[in-house]
Amino acid sequence: MSFGKAARELAAIGRRFYARGWVLGTSGNFSAVVSRKPLRLAITASSLPKGTLRPLDILQCDESGRVMGRASKRPSAETLLHIEIAKRRSAGAVLHTHSVWSTMLSDAWAAGADASLAIQGYEMLKGLAGVPSHEHRELVPILDNDQNMPRLAVLVGETLERHPEAHAFLLRRHGLYTWGETLADAERHVEILEFLFETIGRTQGGPSWR
Amino acid sequence: MSFGKAARELAAIGRRFYARGWVLGTSGNFSAVVSRKPLRLAITASSLPKGTLRPLDILQCDESGRVMGRASKRPSAETLLHIEIAKRRSAGAVLHTHSVWSTMLSDAWAAGADASLAIQGYEMLKGLAGVPSHEHRELVPILDNDQNMPRLAVLVGETLERHPEAHAFLLRRHGLYTWGETLADAERHVEILEFLFETIGRTQGGPSWR
Amino acid sequence: MSFGKAARELAAIGRRFYARGWVLGTSGNFSAVVSRKPLRLAITASSLPKGTLRPLDILQCDESGRVMGRASKRPSAETLLHIEIAKRRSAGAVLHTHSVWSTMLSDAWAAGADASLAIQGYEMLKGLAGVPSHEHRELVPILDNDQNMPRLAVLVGETLERHPEAHAFLLRRHGLYTWGETLADAERHVEILEFLFETIGRTQGGPSWR
Amino acid sequence: MSFGKAARELAAIGRRFYARGWVLGTSGNFSAVVSRKPLRLAITASSLPKGTLRPLDILQCDESGRVMGRASKRPSAETLLHIEIAKRRSAGAVLHTHSVWSTMLSDAWAAGADASLAIQGYEMLKGLAGVPSHEHRELVPILDNDQNMPRLAVLVGETLERHPEAHAFLLRRHGLYTWGETLADAERHVEILEFLFETIGRTQGGPSWR
After folding, report:
1. What is the pLDDT of residues D157-193, one digit of tens each?
2. Which pick of A203, B123, C49, D86 has the fewest CB atoms within 10 Å?
3. CA–CA separation, A177 vs A180, rounded Å?
4. Closest CB from D25, D145, D206 relative to C191
5. Cβ contact (<8 Å) for A127 and B98?
6. How buried is B46 (Cβ within 10 angstroms: 0-12 exposed, 13-18 middle, 19+ buried)?
């Protein structure tokens, strides 16, 4: 995908997610891979409200998270997480939303190594890449939040390695990260997971945890 | 209804239901009968996000679920269910939504043959075809989900036969199927039932089951 | 207000209330007084979806609920209730919405003569006509639903007489009726009451009843 | 900020907040400082629905809350609170919303001097001015509502002095007041706090109080 197209589509995604209430304040950040070798991401600039994102609010970064070319804005504070995911999963796009339900579910389990939210039996799971049936059991790892991005990126990398089948993870009290081969796949994954978090969150008896 | 008109109206329904959050991801599917003998349905193509449906995303199928003419897309994976309902109920349109509340309510009862959700006493029931009063008792059968469509279509047929007065059924953890003589009737039924599922779902003491 | 203006504004209210989810299916009905002597109401036609209301879907009725002039549509089935309220309260407009929260709260108390929902202490109450303070105690009478409109209109009349200060009443499992001197007042009352129903409905310990 | 620009932006904020359901009825009021010495505020006129706010519904007031120039409308009844906050915090804008969740949370603690809602551990807190980490502990003071504005303004002033780090306060059963150096900051604060109120309100075990 060309940078220009990526910038327009990421801006449009920001407006759609904002309308759903999934990226209030200046939360959320979105990226798309515009070159694989060398790795180049189109990514949202830092600290901008996502409901009024425009293509010129999208920056280009290299694989160290440094902005290419002249830029008056800084890239998303979480750029290193996007890079880690793009590399580990060969993802074409990475999306982070920050909804009420994902924030609640990410918090509903005591902190602990290798905590996960288990989701099974829902037809909606079939929309996740490679999932053929509602009988699929999706484990969504939950990671503790951390302001130290390089450290958090390492934890993300280890988590993705330990859970090669995971389509997403949650940051505790911080929200959802998911990705896809294309931006359309990643957006579909966001919708599916936000739907499942709400369904599980509202269900009596609460979510089921591993 | 002509195929062209059906395609435009089904696309518009997709956009309206998506706005309500009833067809997130690529869930949901919609059809309208464009010919009765031979039976021809206008139906949504498979795996498309319903919020951006366009008329050219609607295909025409025969009563075996085969696409008519040249088509680069496949029809909805659930086409056989639409055909079963269109035939058994002489419906003019069949709509499947996949909302949080319908998913939750479809799940709130142990699996069992002939499980149903009973709804009575609500004025909103009067909007269902043929229902004259709020004192009507609507039974919404709940079927176990199944990836084997021919098998599920048989179960749907048997259910419709056993419940000749039912205006809808639920697929467990999968959502709502309803229909109507016209597309407008079917859309009205969706709104009524989604409203009732939310009302019942939110009410303390939970739903009442038969 | 002229009939033409009333028709345009009632249609616009239908679209606004539909967007909020307060008039799904073909529920809800709205009227405005266009003449006081003789009494003439502009009122929504029966059985139409309110989200796509147009001015030509509004009819004119006399005080027996009969349509004036040539009409291919029937007026709202609940026209007699609008007339009763318009007369008893000298209201300029009467609005009936059918939301999830009003339906739930109308139902949360056993059937009984003179049941009411009591609301006190909320700043939002100040928006109701004549209410100067949050310390106001609003009693919202709850009436049993009834398909016999003349009989229900008599009950509505008796209720309004017994509760001269009430700004609204609830029909059990049917929704809210409110009114105002102007259409703007009535719409403001709908928003205030729907807000209060949701706030009370969500609060632990439930609503307080008289 | 010039008065004309402030009027346009305040009107736009009204429409955005109304769409979210945060200023139903005629609730809510918004201001921006257009001059610091002497203090001049652009502020919403009283008793207007905020969803249809236009720039000409914005008035200019001096630091006693008196309207400047010819005005056919009265300024917001809560103008004295805006002035108190603008002065005490050197705020550039003050926004008051009246959502369901803020109303509920403001009420969930017995009346008492120096009651506060404590919020900690949420990444979303980082969007509040000067907050570097999710480990921040934000105390949101809760004040009893009062129709006597001069008296309430004194209480607001004392509260702001006692809590120099607070970014907002709640009026019991009345809603949220927050502010920022710019209108964009204040709007971001509203979104963040409304998000947090909903998240906390929905979480089992309720909010944590000081």
Report:
1. 999 999 999 999 999 999 999 999 999 999 999 999 9
2. A203
3. 11
4. D25
5. no
6. middle
